[in-house]
TrEMBL record:
Alphabetical list of InterPro entries matching this protein: Caleosin-related, EF_hand_dom
Organism superkingdom: Eukaryota
Signal peptide (UniProt feature, chain positions): 1-31
Entry keyword set: Signal
Protein name: EF-hand domain-containing protein
Family: Belongs to the caleosin family.
Keyword Signal: yes
Organism of derivation: Oryza glaberrima
GO molecular function, one term: calcium ion binding
Domain EF-hand: start-end pairs: 36-71
Length: 225
């Protein structure tokens, strides 16, 4: 069952809203990307590169979030802080200002702490660390996580010396858990694996296309982590 979409801190921010209106009216150059040798992290974000030119604009992220099952207002509010944080980190020096587009080639520069370690510093998938997610945290079923277990995993991976990195895992895992967990609240291993290479987004887009649902499931554990 679908419930109300969550509220985000970025909602109602007039500065970001104005920047979005500015950026949404732009065209932009392309960026080279080695498709055959993309890292898992590059594959993860490339779902949102809707025209496959190596650059993700705010409007493309909004389109991608809507495609996986959220309404436009939620997608806009979700995309704003993502681009404000990752755009400057991944943009080359000669990229058009204000550097809000995300360059897939440099996405590893935007990696944050307090994560699972299933991606290395270059964004490559680490199978052993992925398996640790389930060996350490999957208590009810060996092949799935409950909301509580996702919450425990996020807390266990927090870096006490880097509190600024705590929010990102909550936002990322919360969104995908809310959309991809089953009706009993289980987040299955294949869906979790699909986060790292972006295949879960493709699956969610296909499901939305067939159901025409446009409201995100409530992220009930978000505010309690």
């Amino acid at each position: 069952m679908r419930a109300q979409r969550p509220s985000l801190a970025a909602a109602g921010n007039p500065v970001l809203a104005l920047l979005f209106l500015w950026v949404l009216s732009w065209g932009h150059v392309t960026a080279e990307i080695d498709i055959a040798n993309m890292t898992a992290l590059q594959k993860h974000v490339s779902f949102f590169d809707r025209n496959k030119d190596g650059i993700i604009t705010p409007s493309e992220t909004i389109e991608g979030i809507v495609a996986i099952g959220c309404d436009y207002a939620f997608a806009r509010d979700f995309a704003a802080p993502v681009h404000a944080g990752l755009g400057p980190k991944t943009s080359p020096k000669d990229a058009p200002l204000p550097h809000l587009s995300i360059y897939i080639k440099n996405i590893y520069k935007g990696m944050h702490g307090s994560d699972t370690g299933a991606l290395d510093a270059k964004g490559r998938f680490v199978p052993a660390k992925f398996e640790e997610i389930f060996s350490k945290h999957a208590k009810n079923r060996p092949d799935a996580l409950t909301s509580l277990e996702v919450k425990e995993m996020i807390l266990a991976n927090r870096d006490p010396d880097d509190p600024q990195s705590w929010a990102a895992p909550i936002q990322e895992w919360g969104l995908i858990y809310g959309l991809a967990s089953d009706k009993n609240g289980y987040f299955h291993k294949d869906s979790v694996r699909g986060i790292y290479d972006g295949s879960v987004f493709v699956k969610l887009e296909e499901e939305r296309a067939s159901s025409q649902s446009t409201v995100c499931r409530s992220l009930s554990f978000r505010s309690t982590v």
